[in-house]
Design brief:
338 residues; six-stranded mixed β-sheet; three-stranded parallel β-sheet; alpha/beta
């Protein structure tokens, strides 16, 4: 499954264990990096975020990201973060993060600050950031770690669990860092290619009700059109199957169902299957309910694109090319059926 499929189950427990011991080191490092008494403080400004006003330094040069998405958006802008989660070093095969971004981070020797579910407060403080960038899924507003991180630098938090969060984060970072001129050509490239694909596959997008299915060992779920793994599919104007109210929870993640409830997918014309759990998907071959679904009967089942939780415009452009290839497969199947 994707690195982003769900939050780590022991995240908060692990954080609480480490916070008290790390706080001492954070205080010491923060004291060393604080301006000496009598020094003039840097000018500040107020950024109005979706989660409240944040006082930021006027000049931002050093940024730590405590989520997966932000480093890609920063690198698109020509800004290399000084601290990233360790997945940018462990995911060298492009399983959850495009290789172009993990390679750039490795080449620059950016500091690892631990994983999102077990951040290293001392490493964050040692990176000496001007600001810390977070998303509301990996660093919730009620996470006790926030208080410690705010002793190091102000935290800018972005929403992450909707179909527009990737675009909002990218455009807001460009404004904050005065890099809108750098972002503009990336936006134009993305928009132009998106519109080409929309025109090329207009019939599929309008007439095929699709769903993104996620099979696991004993249950399955589907990603809604507002899920962070479907933003580019949504942006292309795809028609999603109508989900029942109980298929999505309050956190905008899928609820999970037994394979006895696969008939819920009978209103899908085409099923895209999230890659990464071949054993679970193979088990569907002997499931009678699955075999009798209209999409399966028509042969309209395909692997969904990799790297679907988009993090930036450059990342989104990769998603567009993968979706264009996917729609070409869908079109070929439809054409073969006459």
């Amino acid at each position: 499954m994707s690195l982003f499929a769900s939050a780590h189950p022991n995240r908060r427990a692990r954080r609480l264990v480490g916070i008290l011991t790390a706080s001492v080191a954070v205080f010491a490092l923060a004291a060393c990096s604080s301006p000496a008494e009598g020094d003039a403080a840097d000018d500040t400004r107020v950024y109005e975020s979706d989660f409240g006003d944040i006082e930021l330094p006027e000049k931002i040069e050093r940024i730590v990201s405590v989520d997966f998405y932000t480093p890609a958006a920063l690198i698109d802008l020509g800004v290399m973060p000084v601290g990233v989660v360790n997945s940018y070093y462990t995911d060298t095969e492009g399983v959850g993060i495009p290789v172009q971004y993990s390679s750039a981070v490795a080449d620059a020797g950016v500091a690892s600050i631990g994983e999102y579910y077990e951040l290293n407060l001392e490493a964050v403080a040692k990176a000496d950031p001007d600001v810390i960038i977070a998303t509301s899924d990996f660093l919730p507003l009620d996470d006790p770690l926030r208080e410690e991180l705010e002793k190091v630098a102000p935290i800018i938090t972005f929403e992450a669990r909707d179909g527009e969060s990737w675009r909002t984060r990218a455009t807001e970072l460009a404004k904050i860092l005065d890099k809108e001129d750098v972002l503009e050509p990336l936006v134009e490239k993305y928009d132009a290619r998106r519109d080409e694909i929309k025109d090329q596959y207009a019939d599929i997008l309008a007439n095929e009700a699709v769903t993104v299915m996620v099979p696991v060992a004993d249950e399955w779920g589907t990603y809604a059109d507002t899920h962070f793994a479907t933003p580019i599919l949504r942006d292309l104007g795809a028609t999603f199957r109508e989900q029942a109210d109980d298929e999505v929870n309050e956190a905008k993640f899928p609820n999970w169902f037994s394979y006895e409830n696969l008939d819920r997918l009978s209103n899908a014309d085409t099923i895209f299957v999230q890659p990464g759990n071949d054993e679970a998907f193979a088990a569907l071959d002997t499931n009678t309910i699955w075999q009798n679904l209209p999409a399966v009967q028509r042969g309209m089942v395909f692997d969904y694109i990799p790297l679907s939780p988009t993090g930036s415009f450059g990342w989104a452009s990769e998603n567009l090319e993968d979706l264009a290839d996917l729609f070409a497969q869908v079109q070929a199947k439809i054409d073969a059926q006459g």
